[in-house]
Design brief:
globular; 2 domains; 7-stranded parallel beta sheet; 16% strand
Length: 394
């Protein structure tokens, strides 16, 4: 039986998360790949950031190992542990296929795979760091690094058109190929809730039926550019506008101070981490997303699946989902006046909100997780059937 390893990085866990014995619930990042590999008869291994992973249970027949792969390139101790653990696994199990994801997972997976002569290496780029408008260091050093690592890669999977075009210029191992797959998939059916009382949800938040509710989800970090959203709400000068921010992060106090300074503190609602996003989307009117950088934003796909029109930044990933003037409005990340104008266009026109929301319901079907599963299975069948029986092609 041939063996496939799936690895990616994640946020560094808390002590409780590290020690957790709860059943592992795979996400859409890995499910399409795991299902495709298992259907082809592969034994599947997966990196996980929990201690004693062999004790963990999962709905899928997957064997876990302690990956220690997080999001920081400068977490040298964790990265060294990750390197040692990955090399140990590759030596012990003689893995036939490494499917690595995200920057740190992609770096370690490809370097270790090269050292161990792993027959097939696949890399999914969830958003290259040398996107249009990126800082110079991203467009030079990070681009060079991706070009260099591509030489150790047999297939690169991209999830947006800008990255797909960029990767076409890379030289891959064994004349490898670049693929496009529409993201990691969103369960569109899960966001079509029936019987949800919109006003009950609003009342719990202190909002009325007449209010125009905007919503965004994501960490409170610089990259998400929440400051532009708050400034746009203030610029729109409409006291009926209320903005729900679902997420936590280091900029919370700074963003609260900005809302106070602009006299919109009563219109900006910091809800923290929420487990009821599907319900909150049903209670909202508009999705507001002024982010600087994305690969293919899951939060926007969820909002589209809930039938919301979008006001978003005109950047990579966002432009793959929204056509300006059709499913919403796209503006440059620093165009506060443009965002404010777009917000007011939707706020004062219920029919426009409805038509744009319906357009998004049609568009998002392409990005449904079942479609992504189908596309991933086709890709795996094309790439993995090339492997000879036995490790190393022997």
């Amino acid at each position: 039986m041939k063996k496939l390893l799936f690895i990616s990085n994640s946020t560094k866990p808390t002590y409780e998360q590290l020690m957790s014995r709860e059943k592992v619930k795979l996400t859409n990042v890995s499910i399409p790949c795991v299902e495709a590999a298992l259907s082809m008869g592969y034994e599947v291994f997966m990196g996980i950031n929990r201690i004693n992973p062999e004790e963990l249970d999962c709905d899928y027949n997957v064997k876990f190992y302690y990956a220690s792969i997080y999001r920081s390139l400068f977490d040298f101790k964790s990265n060294y542990t990750a390197y040692k653990n990955l090399m140990s696994l590759l030596k012990r199990e003689k893995i036939d296929v490494i499917h690595c994801n995200t920057p740190i997972g992609g770096l370690l997976g490809r370097l270790c795979g090269k050292m161990m002569k792993t027959p097939k290496i696949i890399y999914t780029a969830h958003g290259f760091h040398f996107y249009k408008g990126a800082p110079l260091i991203n467009r030079t050093i990070f681009k060079w690094a991706e070009m260099w690592l591509a030489r150790y890669t047999d297939a690169i999977i991209t999830i947006n058109q800008e990255d797909y075009q960029a990767a076409q210029k890379f030289k891959l191992r064994n004349n490898g190929k670049v693929y496009y797959i529409p993201g990691v998939g969103v369960d569109t059916k899960a966001f079509r809730l029936e019987g949800v009382d919109k006003q009950v949800i609003r009342s719990a938040l202190g909002l009325s039926a007449e209010d125009i509710v905007l919503i965004a989800m994501g960490d409170l970090i610089q990259r998400k550019n929440y400051a532009a959203s708050i400034k746009a709400i203030a610029k729109a000068d409409n006291t009926k506008l209320h903005f729900l921010i679902c997420g936590k992060g280091p900029l919370l106090d700074e963003l609260k101070a900005l809302a106070r300074k602009l006299n919109v503190e009563n219109q900006i609602h910091f809800l923290g981490f929420r487990t009821d996003i599907k319900e909150l989307l049903q209670a909202a009117d508009i999705f507001l997303f002024t982010t600087y950088q994305e690969g293919l934003p899951r939060s926007m796909m969820e909002a589209m699946a809930a039938g919301l029109p979008c006001v978003a930044s005109k950047i990579r990933g966002n432009v793959d989902l929204i056509e300006d003037g059709k499913g919403g409005f796209l503006r440059k990340p620093e165009d506060i006046d443009g965002f404010a104008e777009a917000i007011n266009k939707l706020a004062f026109n219920k029919d426009l909100r409805k038509s744009m929301g319906l357009s998004n319901l049609k568009t998002i079907i392409r990005f449904d997780v079942e479609n992504v599963k189908s596309e991933m299975k086709k890709l795996y069948e094309k790439e993995l059937t090339k492997l000879s029986t036995g490790w190393g092609g022997k």
